[in-house]
Amino acid sequence: MASTEVDIKKLMEAGAHFGHKTSRWHPNMAQFIHSKREGNHIIDLTKTVECLEEALSFLEQTASEGKQIVFVGTKRQAHDITKAAAEATKMPYVVERWLGGMLTNRTTIGGRIKHLKDLEEKMENGQLAAKYSKLEVQRFQEEIDAMNHIYGGIKDMTAKLGAVYVTDMIHEANAVREAKKLGVPVVAIVDTNADPAKATYPIPCNDDAIKALKLITDYVQAAIETGQAKHAKKADKPTDKEGQSDAKGDK
């Protein structure tokens, strides 16, 4: 059970229950649909609460084990929300464009990130300024900025991930596909037009409303922070051997 409690009233106020037009629905979402209204599906928020709490429990546990969770939200509505939550929890993120192989082709992606870090280090310690003209240094800075725009959020991503959190199953289909290929659990907001079977922990919810995206992501952030606090507490706790040594020293 997650430490973070989900408030169904807040979900309602955020418009989390508004699905897509009935003509665009995915049959696998039937279990999460409450009714139809004016040609649109209405999501059953009691199911949303159940699924969200299960996802939060998993994310809390994952963070408590010291594992990384990648935030993915490249859609306009999700960009700032996703980045803010990822930065707050010091987790990797992708909010610009998902490049093919970001998870599955770590050799190529890792090479680009290494090049970026090398340039940043040389820029910071003055190696570039000492060797090149001002114009050339400016071009190096432009290259650094351009690469950070794409890779900045995953510069410190580890090879082994605990989970991927996506704000839109369809829009982030490539991220979901790569995570599943590697066996990395996927926590995803799933609207009525998407297939929940593609997510390990689907969260039935409106994936277009900014308030809904912000609310769900806030819950995700809170769960991760709780898990991180547990991990930090475990790291600070002395081992049994250390405790025994201290006890012997006190006698």
Please describe the topology of this protein.
Blueprint: H1 8-13, E1 18-21, E2 33-37, E3 40-43, H2 45-64, E4 69-72, H3 76-88, E5 93-94, H4 106-124, H5 127-131, H6 134-151, E6 163-166, H7 173-182, E7 186-190, E8 201-204, H8 210-236, H9 240-250
Parallel strand pairs: 4-5, 4-6, 6-7, 7-8
Antiparallel strand pairs: 1-3, 2-3
Helix pairs in contact: 2-8, 3-8, 4-6
List keywords for this structure.
single chain; 251 residues; alpha/beta; five-stranded parallel sheet; three-stranded antiparallel sheet; 8 strands; 51% helix
Question: How would you describe the overall organization of this protein?
Answer:
- The chain has nine helices and eight strands.
- The protein is of the alpha/beta class.
- The protein has a five-stranded parallel beta sheet, with helices on both faces.
- Helix 7 (173-182) links the parallel strand 6 and strand 7 (186-190).
- Helix 2 (45-64) packs parallel to helix 8, helix 3 (76-88) runs parallel beside helix 8 (210-236) and helix 4 (106-124) packs across helix 6 (134-151).
- The radius of gyration is 22 Å and the shape is globular.
- The mean pLDDT is 92.
Question: Could you give a short account of the major beta sheet?
Answer: 5 strands, parallel
Structural class: alpha/beta
Number of helices: 9
Apparent shape: globular
How are strands sequenced across the largest beta sheet? 5-4-6-7-8
Strand proportion: 5-15%
What is the average of the pLDDT values? 92
Helix content: 40-55%
Ends distance? 42 Å
Rg, Å, rounded: 22 Å
Strand segment tally:
8
Secondary-structure element pattern, one letter each: HEEEHEHEHHHEHEEHH
Note poorly predicted spans. none
